[in-house]
Design goal:
about 250 residues; three-stranded antiparallel beta sheet; globular
C-alpha cells in the first residue's frame, strides 16, 4: 500500500485550529468553484467539528449557493426530528445558516438498505470534491469502526453495527444521556467512498483523540485504526490542537 505524506497542521490552541481549518475549507471550496459550476462537499457532524463550522460561517467569500452539501453518516432508527440525528445537528450548526445549492441528508427512518442505496446513487451522480472529517476515539472515520471498516469495500454507503467504544463516545460527547440511548446501527459512507474525494480536511481536537491520531499517523495501515488509511490519500490535511497532537 503506497503511503503519501499527510499535511499536518499544528496549532497553539483549539481556537486557532478552528480558524485555520475553516480558512482551509473555504480555500478548498473556492478552488473547486474556480474550475467548475458547483462543488460537492461532505461534512462530518460531531461536537469536535462545531468550532470549525462556526468559523466557516464567518467567511463571506465562499459561494455556498453553488455547493451541494452531503454528510457522512447517520443513525438508523432515530425519529426524523431527533436532535442527536447528524443531519439535524448539521442543520443547527451550519446548513440552516447558508443558502446551499442542495442539502442532501441521510434519513434515519425508513428501510436502511434502501436509504443507503439511494444515497449512494446521489453520490455517484455528484462525485465528491471535498470531505471535511474527524477521527473517532477508536480511529474511525465516519462510522467505519474497526470491526466493520473495509479498505476495499465495494459499496459507497452501507449499514453498520456500531462498536461499544464508538457508542460510548457519543455519550461522552453529550449527544446522548446513556449508552442505551445510542442506536446500535448506523449508515455510513464507506472508506473507499471517502477516499474518492479530491481533497480531505480533518479537524481533530481533544486529548481523547491523541492515541487515535498517533496510530493514524505512525502505526501500521490497518482497519484496527481505520484513519490510518488517510496516509494513502494524495491530498489530505489534518488540523490538530495541543491536546490532540502526538507526543
Amino acid at each position: 500500500m503506497h503511503e503519501l505524506p499527510i499535511d499536518i497542521r499544528l496549532h497553539e490552541s483549539r481556537a486557532a485550529m478552528d480558524v485555520s481549518a475553516a480558512r482551509a475549507i473555504g480555500d478548498a471550496v473556492r478552488d473547486v468553484l474556480a474550475g467548475q459550476d458547483s462543488a460537492n462537499v461532505v461534512f462530518a457532524a460531531a461536537p469536535s467539528q462545531a468550532g470549525t463550522l462556526t468559523e466557516l460561517l464567518k467567511l463571506d467569500d465562499v459561494d455556498w449557493s453553488r455547493v451541494n452539501a452531503f454528510h457522512m453518516d447517520e443513525y438508523v432508527g432515530l425519529p426524523a426530528d431527533h436532535p442527536a440525528g447528524f443531519g439535524n445537528w448539521l442543520r443547527r450548526h451550519f446548513f440552516d445558516a447558508k443558502a446551499f445549492r442542495s442539502i442532501n441528508l441521510i434519513s434515519p427512518e425508513g428501510n436502511a438498505d434502501d436509504v443507503a442505496a439511494a444515497y449512494a446513487k446521489d453520490l455517484s451522480a455528484r462525485p465528491i470534491d471535498l470531505v471535511c472529517f474527524g477521527i473517532g476515539v477508536n480511529g474511525h472515520i465516519a462510522f467505519n469502526d474497526p470491526p466493520v471498516a473495509d479498505f476495499n469495500d465495494p459499496m459507497l454507503v452501507k449499514r453498520v453495527t456500531l462498536d461499544l467504544v464508538c457508542r460510548q463516545q457519543q455519550v461522552d460527547d453529550g449527544c446522548f444521556a446513556t449508552l442505551e440511548d445510542v442506536p446500535a446501527e448506523a449508515l455510513t459512507l464507506t472508506i473507499p467512498a471517502l477516499l474518492k474525494a479530491r481533497r480531505m480536511i480533518g479537524v481533530v481536537p481533544t486529548a481523547a483523540k491523541r492515541d487515535a491520531v498517533e496510530r493514524a499517523l505512525s502505526g501500521p495501515i490497518t482497519t484496527e485504526c481505520p484513519a490510518s488509511i488517510l496516509r494513502t490519500h494524495p491530498n489530505c490535511s489534518l488540523f490538530l490542537e495541543p491536546e490532540s497532537q502526538p507526543r
